[in-house]
Amino acid sequence: MAPDLVDSGILDTLFANNAAPILLIDPDRDGAIVDANPKAAAFYGHSRETLRSLHVWDINALGRSILPAMREIASWEGGHYPQRFHHRLADGSVRDVQVYAGPIVLAGRKLLLCIVHDLTAVIEAEQFNRLLLENVQVGVCGIDRAGNFTFVNPVAVRAFGFRHESEMTRGHIGCFLSHTGPAPTDPTSTALPPDSRTAGTEGAAAVLHPIFQVAETGEPARDIDATFLRGDGTAFPVRLTASPIRNHSGIVGVVMSFSDLTVEREREAQASDLANALPGAIFQAELHQGGALRACYFSSAATELLGLAPDSELTAPSILIPLMSLKGWARIRRSLRRAGRDGKVWEGELEIGPAESRRWLLGRAQPRRRADGTMVFNGVLLDITERKILEAELQRAAMHDPLTGAWNRRRFQQALAEAEARAERYGRPYVLALIDIDHFKRFNDTHGHQAGDDALRLVAGTLSARLRRSDALARWGGEEFALLLPETELATARQVLENLRHAVASQQMECGSSITVSIGAGQCLAGEDTYGLLQRVDAALYRAKDAGRNRVEQA
């Protein structure tokens, strides 16, 4: 792509009023990102210049596998069509996006114009709402004003005697209302009985069914005893609640929930089985105005999820309180109170159990305020232990040297900057040491690279085993290590370093040889930055080598 197209800010000119992230991609240059609007830079967390240096496979979780799809989109003639992808942001997080992509011609080149919409929150909300809908213990149905089903949950499907919601969502509620005359058994039939909107008995005046009364008047109906018909025509008594569904144009339908009064126990058992088959547990909790938190209900799957005995009384405080620290419970109460105050879905991570068998749970719950001010939370708990372990492993991999297990240079520089800040603000001393394995190249050439790797691991392990938890050891590069001793004077550090040098020299390797290290060390001076300290310590290390190695020299 010609530079003048990129530098002209054409996206700013053409799409200045578009609040969505926009990318301009060149399919003929391996998916190079030609330009991006400021909204895209803010969304992806890259500067605009950085985005211009990337390719589409740098931000798409499919990697280079996206290129065939990109070329296919580039072949379309006119129009932009939505595609779902996972896009990676600068901080490493991944978002669900819908990309409206299509070809355009600019400056004689055929490019792809991509308008990006972040759907992450929408998808999570849909999944969460669907999970709750599928696990409530009552039947839930939605109908439009004409009486056609718009949605049914699994409990309702079973109550009406069907196997799948698709068997009902094409039908009409009138097929399932008690009325005079035979009931049609085909829910997809459009030939409704004349009284499908009415309820009554022979000889009595027919009245509008409560469900349709709600659609007509807009007034909710609560705890109405009625009779429904299953798909095979058999009747069953229900208690139903119905509320109008409104939009800007008025009432567009009705949502109703009902309980099958004759098979309540069986229905509850089925719902419980369904809940326990899910990869998690359903719970209900109350947060009282005084701050007391009380668990009201857990599905039986929670016993395994929480690591408790099958016969445990899950709602008992004596069982639940030991699962987390007091700080953990306090944090949960605060987040629940905040969610209840804001009327938002609560989400929190729970760290439960002792260190040797620790587990992490993700909790999500919808708040509902009772008349007395108590907040009731209905939600689910999911086991995210494997995800947390993976995140920890990835974090460790990003901060540690894979061969020795010591910190890598990047992590050590962060610790060094923190030590410098403490020294500047509080006057707390620290010592920096550089440690180099003596004659490492000759050792490698003599014993082989495997023995060289063993030597690096031996030095790292020997040093780490003799350091405080507050000390920091990193592989600085090659055969060189860096050591940070915070809150330490040089005089004290000198003896520590001598002990470390002696500990390394006393180790015997499997190849029959031993190794030694040379050490340069220095204490930060008032007003000295880490760069100056590193130079002094590095010079001390070279003096130790020039003086015969296997020794400690002070900067």
Automatic annotation (TrEMBL):
Gene Ontology process terms (BP): cell adhesion involved in single-species biofilm formation; negative regulation of bacterial-type flagellum-dependent cell motility
Enzyme class name: transferase
Domain of life: Bacteria
PROSITE patterns linked: GGDEF, PAC
SUPFAM superfamilies: Nucleotide cyclase, PYP-like sensor domain (PAS domain)
Enzyme Commission number, as recorded: 2.7.7.65
InterPro entries xref list: Diguanylate_Cyclase, GGDEF_dom, Nucleotide_cyclase, PAC, PAS, PAS-assoc_C, PAS-like_dom_sf, PAS_4
Xref: NCBIfam families: GGDEF (TIGR00254), sensory_box (TIGR00229)
Protein name: diguanylate cyclase
